[in-house]
Amino acid sequence: MYQELLKLQQNKKPIRLAVIGAAGHQGLGICLQSRLTPGLKLTVAIDLNVEGAKKAALASGHYRPIVSNDYETVLAKPDIFDIMIEATADPAAGAKHTIATLEKGIPVILMNAEVDILLGPLLQKIATDNDTIVSSDAGDQPGVLARMIDEIMMFGLTPRMIGNNKGFLLRDATNAKMVSAAKERFLNVSQCVSYTDGSKVNIEMALLANAFNAPPLMRGMEGPKLEHVTQVLDQFDFGYAGCAVEYILGAKPGSGVFVIAETFDKLQRQYLEYYKMGIGPRYLFYRPYHLCHLETPRAIVNAFLFKKRIMYPQGKLTDVFAFAKRDIPSGFKIQRSIGSDEFYGLIDMRDNATELVPIALLENEGSQRPVLKQALSKDQPLKWYDVEIPDSELWRLYQRQEKLLEGINET
User: Fold this and answer.
1) Mean pLDDT, residues 166-172 taken together
2) Is residue 299 part of a domain?
3) Given 99, 223, 232, 297, which residue has the most CB atoms within 10 angstroms?
4) CA gap 262, 268 in Å, rounded
């Protein structure tokens, strides 16, 4: 793949990137990476924060990228970029940007897990209808795990657990509590809250569940606290069928992702024991890092040169649903859900949660905001009859996807 990028660079035909959400943590990183990885060129940096977008354009080192806060105007210009990276972390805005781009026949990389979990199947259908592709990113946990799974299955082993090694969990994290931590990590505060309260890991593992038919063992996953990642092999009895998504908490050496896979082939197990993988039949494959924007070029090259996706939903087995972080009164107008002071998200099977509201659906643009019709108690799930959801574009897209999924389920 690196050689392909070198050829593009040498032939002066780099892949031209448009990054939307360029002023954000990951958007800025991608703009920077376009300077460090050959064969890539930033031509468009878009963000509502124009000064931040200018900073990202400067970090790219490329000559005069277009800087704008208006994606529609940029998209109307002919032939200025080859692929779009959506990095806003906003489901409503992300859906609008992604659909408009796909309808132009331009591929999209989603560094926006929030829109991916809410509308993934619909976005895939729109991409197919327009002879292009939309793919999850290669560098966040889901993309890294998808690549690990592909390799493990090529080995002839069967994945039994797809896992995330999470460092810290505080369900009632608030924006006020996380100001200092966000500043230390160069994150916006709400983003830091979504990591800390567990919403983000639930979203990421739900994406994997939908891609690999790997349900959680329980609502929200078990999330046991372990001393070391190797203890995961003894933590679960693996009496369930198929594969499951899960996370562990605070295990050394810290961070990273893992897959547990098994084989009952005696000769293969002898080889694996010789290769210091243990006696089996289950084996731990652990990657102690994921490098986010540094790994995004893999998704870009796969999409643009080879028309391949890093990961995509096979359907909608799971979703991530909203739970009250505190007591919330009736009449409360929901300004934000993911990374808010009011809600956290938990993964569950859709069949087990037909009355519950997906947390990403509560994220609307402009003045259209969901309003609670009934008070919620701390840790209570939000049900459809508890909330009035405005007739927004996001809501209409969600309904459109529900009709699509009904068709998928009938076939």
Assistant:
1) 94
2) no
3) 297
4) 11
